[in-house]
């Protein structure tokens, strides 16, 4: 091996179902944190600056963010140490410290403070270097707001400059389930009304 492994951190936001595939190394449930107001949720997803700022004002959200950051650092460094221990290498392996300058993330700001991220997982192939991949899954009810905001904020933490950080919002492209539930309820109501009308006709007959 010519040098230390390339650490790749992949952060997923997703809804409660179906489970992530591949299975993440670390899993976090954002449903225990307060939901943004409905007025915000109706017009924006978790990439919105307004929603992220609202959630960052919630102590439970920020405490979870800090705890997850530390667990990610610890887990990645353990993965790197295991990789190094299992490979013969004559060259010194540099340590990855949190106080090193953060690298540029694979995200960019669009209008209205919305962060544009990846939707599908990119290839983890690297050129001339072996990779150590850590997958982190963050879920909320639908994968549109809390988990998306959490992953966006987590990606912006001061990770070591050697790390490559990727964001995947699995369920952002999916339509909200509310409209589907409304259609189902309307269909069931219509069927019940029709059934009642048929029973009344039978009774009168």
TrEMBL record:
InterPro entries on file: RapZ_C
Domain spans labelled RapZ C-terminal: 88-172
Domain of life: Eukaryota
Biased composition (Basic residues): 184-194
Region (Disordered): 174-205
Basic and acidic residues bias (residue ranges): 195-205
Protein name: RapZ C-terminal domain-containing protein
């Amino acid at each position: 091996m010519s040098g230390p492994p390339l650490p790749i951190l992949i952060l997923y936001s997703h809804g409660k179902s179906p489970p992530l595939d591949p299975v993440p190394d670390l899993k976090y449930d954002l449903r225990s944190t307060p939901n943004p107001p409905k007025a915000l949720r109706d017009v924006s997803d978790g990439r919105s600056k307004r929603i992220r700022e609202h959630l960052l004002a919630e102590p439970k959200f920020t405490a979870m963010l800090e705890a997850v950051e530390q667990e990610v650092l610890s887990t990645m460094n353990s993965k790197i140490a295991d990789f190094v221990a299992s490979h013969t290498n004559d060259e010194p392996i540099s340590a990855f410290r949190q106080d090193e300058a953060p690298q540029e993330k694979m995200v960019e700001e669009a209008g209205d403070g919305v962060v544009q991220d990846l939707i599908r997982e990119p290839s983890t192939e690297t050129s001339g270097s072996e990779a150590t991949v850590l997958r982190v899954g963050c879920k909320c009810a639908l994968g549109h707001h809390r988990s998306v905001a959490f992953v966006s904020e987590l990606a912006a933490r001061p990770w070591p400059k050697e790390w490559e950080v990727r964001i995947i919002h699995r369920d952002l492209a999916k339509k909200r389930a509310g409209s589907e539930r409304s259609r189902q309820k309307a269909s069931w109501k219509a069927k019940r009304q029709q059934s009642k009308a048929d029973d009344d006709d039978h009774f009168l007959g």
